[in-house]
From TrEMBL:
Cellular component per GO, a single term: Golgi apparatus
Sequence intervals crossing the membrane: 20-43
Superkingdom, natural source: Eukaryota
Domain DUF7074 stretches: 122-206
Domain DUF7075: 249-543
Pfam family, one: DUF7075
Native organism: Aquilegia coerulea (Rocky mountain columbine)
InterPro entries, alphabetized: DUF7074, DUF7075
Protein name: Uncharacterized protein
Keywords: Membrane, Transmembrane, Transmembrane helix
Length: 558
């Protein structure tokens, strides 16, 4: 009988991680300490706010009443933990000076050099040399920020000397290898020897004629003629359909781990992640397929309504496609359907082992043969938290698969668009206010250090005048940063409202996921996008230690 395999690798990093976790585990609880410590020790990331981990210990309460008080002004997921990728072969073909020269050589052999007299002033967008000119131009303009992956053949722009070109790229500051797309309009002129030259280029996604249609099988770079408008610019690269087990025999051959809904439901997102990754980690340890419920209850803190909201979809926030690829999972409703169907057709029961308490450890279940392991979380809080399965001794065996959890590509498309509109050439300041600024006991200077006048003085000492300045903040008052506008081109998340407004791609796509009901752009999404734009800035000014000497976690914690 075949088992559904998922890898449980033990690399040095893994060992390290287990040690780190087990050491901290006596004082476990707070998610942030663990992640933050693990990140700091194992991954040594360049992010300054991840360093003040130990100080958080002061926030802790007793084990049973673990509170997940973490920094809600920043959201880190798996892709932020990856070491900066080397030039991985899986990343696809990169356009570099070398590849451009090669295609130029090829052209030279085909003996079709421009004739200065005849061709003057006629730009033929289909001429491969136009593409070469554009590739050179892009490389020169964006080389330090962007890796160019694939180009589409140029198409006509709106004027005779304009060409629209589309390509895929990745951002050097993003550590996952996800690709994004851009299409711009270029004005082509002639240089010495009548060679093509880009004389002007419009901004991010300005080359409307090169927008690609929704192609069911993805990008076909050999296509030469793209239909013009109307095209649907949706990101057809995202495939987060719900996988099904398939045939009945395949269902029976699998081995599954089910977690019933526990006390984590409607707790903060950090607790959800900490718990979810515990379940997924246990499934990997047991070589089982994890049965996951895509339904998420978003805690009140992130909701404009200020109430817990059930019925959110995992895919609004996280990259389900990536999760499907790297972990063995099946969606709960599909699973139950298949389970019932099998029992009906075969008139017998599938072996299920019910596990009543988290006190039965993953190690004790290692030899379990039943097709389905069903963990119940019925007890009172905090007995019914999923993450308790991974406590104590189990922490040595179970590794939370952080790498499986990335932010939603749809949110990242928004991030990419915001930074693209600033041509990836911007600085950022992170201004934490909100509750912390109000709490004078723990953060005595924060409020005044982030006052409009002080911001101007302090930011000026660190950032050149008239740069693009992105302000990532939890300050709700839009005009709070107006004083900075006399010195910088200020950008705030709300300046890009149309990216999630009712005419946006994001709106359309999330609506489709949500059975046709519009999805609200909630607080968690805002922070996720704000964080990622911040990560892409050239110079980053942090609230703590750059703007104020108050400690990140309250007095005497640093
Ligand atoms: C946890 O909280 C409950 C109620 O909030 C309280 O009764 C209990 O004593 C607390 N437990 C510990 C160990 O602090
Ligand atoms: C290349 O062009 C030159 C001049 O136009 C011509 O004499 C020569 O035959 C061409 N070579 C080939 C291989 O077409
Ligand atoms: C433009 O260039 C392509 C490829 O070199 C060629 O096939 C086509 O005939 C040219 N069109 C015009 C109008 O010159
Ligand atoms: C592009 O423009 C050229 C001349 O400006 C024209 O000859 C050609 O037919 C156009 N191509 C398409 C695909 O419209
Ligand atoms: C122009 O052509 C001349 C002679 O073929 C060559 O030496 C020169 O490098 C060319 N200039 C450019 C910018 O390609
Ligand atoms: C791309 O399109 C061309 C022609 O339409 C076809 O021959 C080729 O197989 C396609 N490639 C892929 C990867 O779909
Ligand atoms: C999407 O992924 C599923 C597997 O998860 C696959 O069966 C399906 O064919 C994919 N759809 C497209 C359009 O690539
Ligand atoms: C899971 O698979 C790995 C290798 O395939 C094996 O070493 C391990 O013992 C298996 N674990 C269980 C619980 O079957
Ligand atoms: C989009 O929102 C605006 C303002 O909220 C509203 O006036 C408009 O009717 C909406 N359009 C659609 C298609 O829902
Ligand atoms: C969103 O969907 C509506 C209706 O289906 C369509 O008219 C609109 O063009 C779409 N917008 C985008 C950006 O895809
Ligand atoms: C912010 O503070 C850190 C730590 O003191 C320092 O390394 C960094 O250079 C400062 N950032 C700026 C933009 O000055």
């Amino acid at each position: 009988m075949k088992e559904t395999n998922s890898s449980t690798t033990t690399e040095p990093i893994g060992q390290n991680l287990i040690k780190v976790i087990s050491n901290v585990c006596f004082s476990f609880f707070v998610f942030s300490v663990l992640i933050f410590t693990v990140i700091a020790i194992t991954y040594q990331p360049p992010d300054p706010w991840l360093e003040s981990s130990k100080s958080l210990i002061t926030d802790f309460t007793k084990v049973e009443n673990a509170t997940f008080k973490t920094d809600t002004s920043v959201i880190s997921t798996g892709e932020d933990l990856i070491l900066a990728p080397a030039d991985s072969p899986s990343a696809g073909f990169q356009i570099t000076e070398v590849t451009i020269e090669k295609s130029e050589e090829k052209l030279a052999y085909s003996n079709s050099s421009l004739n200065c007299d005849e061709d003057l002033n006629v730009v033929n967008c289909s001429d491969p040399r136009v593409l070469i000119a554009v590739e050179r131009f892009n490389l020169k303009t964006f080389k330090s920020r962007i890796v160019f992956l694939e180009y589409q053949p140029p198409v006509n722009g709106s004027k005779p000397n304009e060409c629209d070109v589309a390509w895929k790229y990745r951002n050097k500051k993003e550590r996952s290898w996800r690709k994004y797309r851009d299409y711009r309009r270029f004005t082509i002129g002639f240089g010495v020897n009548c060679s093509y030259e880009v004389t002007a280029a419009k901004g991010f996604r300005s080359g409307f004629n090169a927008r690609r249609p929704r192609l069911p099988s993805g990008w076909n770079s050999t296509r030469t003629h793209l239909p013009r408008i109307p095209v649907n610019p949706s990101d057809s690269d995202i495939n987060d359909t719900i996988p099904t087990v398939g045939s009945e025999s395949a269902f029976r051959q699998g081995k599954y781990l089910v977690y019933s809904q526990g006390g984590d439901h409607c707790k903060g997102m950090n607790q959800f992640l900490w718990s979810f990754l515990c379940g997924l980690g246990e499934a990997q340890f047991l070589n089982r397929t994890f049965v996951m419920d895509l339904n998420i209850c978003l805690a009140a803190t992130y909701n404009p309504s200020n109430k817990d909201e059930d019925g959110k979809d995992f895919r609004f926030y996280f990259d389900f496609e990536h999760l499907k690829e790297v972990a063995s999972i099946v969606e709960a409703r599909e699973f139950i359907k298949d389970w019932r169907k099998w029992e009906r057709t075969h008139r017998r029961r599938i072996p299920v082992r019910r596990v009543a308490s988290y006190k039965i450890t993953p190690m004790q279940l290692h030899k379990a043969k039943s097709t389905i392991l069903y963990r119940r979380f019925d007890g009172p809080e905090p007995e019914n938290y999923w993450y308790r399965v991974c406590e104590g001794e189990a922490a040595k065996y179970i590794e939370r698969p952080w790498h499986a959890l990335w932010k939603s590509k749809r949110l990242m498309n928004i991030v990419s668009e915001i930074s693209g509109r600033m041509d990836w050439d911007f600085d950022a300041v992170h201004v934490v206010r909100g509750e912390k600024a109000e709490n004078k006991e723990l953060w005595p200077h924060l409020d005044s250090d982030t006052s409009p006048d002080n911001l101007v003085t302090k930011v000026q000492a660190m950032i050149q005048p008239w740069r693009n300045l992105y302000v990532a903040t939890n300050e709700p008052f839009y005009n709070y940063f107006d004083k900075l506008r006399s010195y910088y081109k200020v950008h705030l998340l709300d300046d890009y409202k149309e990216l999630w407004g009712n005419t946006s791609e994001w709106y359309n796509e999330t609506k489709t996921l949500n059975d046709g009901k519009p999805v609200e752009f909630d607080g968690y999404m805002r922070v996720a996008v704000d964080t990622e734009v911040l990560y892409r800035a050239k110079t980053r000014v942090e609230t703590f230690y750059n703007l104020t000497s108050d400690c990140k976690d309250g007095v005497n914690t640093c």
